[in-house]
Specification:
By secondary structure, the chain is mainly α. It has a domain at about 1-50. It has one helix and no strands.
Length: about 80
């Protein structure tokens, strides 16, 4: 029974050391991890926006007509509103 208690105590100690070591690692490297996450997030946002822009611009721009209407008259018309010259 003493051997089982010793193994449990040893595993408990190793677990505590692992938790303390992991916490110390995170504490010491938190600034680098935060900067890396910011850079990664900014790059992902830029890629998403630049990927979406061509589709949005193409959808917003109307098609140019191939044939247009007649030119405006160069003399004042009596049937419609006056066009300033």
């Amino acid at each position: 029974m003493q051997k089982v208690i010793n193994v449990v105590a040893l595993l408990s100690g190793l677990t505590s050391l692992a938790v303390i070591g992991g916490g110390a690692y995170l504490y010491l490297n938190k600034d680098a991890m935060i900067e890396e996450a910011k850079t990664s997030l900014a790059n992902a946002a830029v890629e998403a926006v630049s990927g979406a822009l061509p589709g949005l611009i193409d959808a917003a721009m109307p098609e140019l007509p191939e044939v247009t209407g007649p030119a405006l008259p160069s003399t004042p018309s009596t049937t419609g509103p006056d066009i300033p010259f």
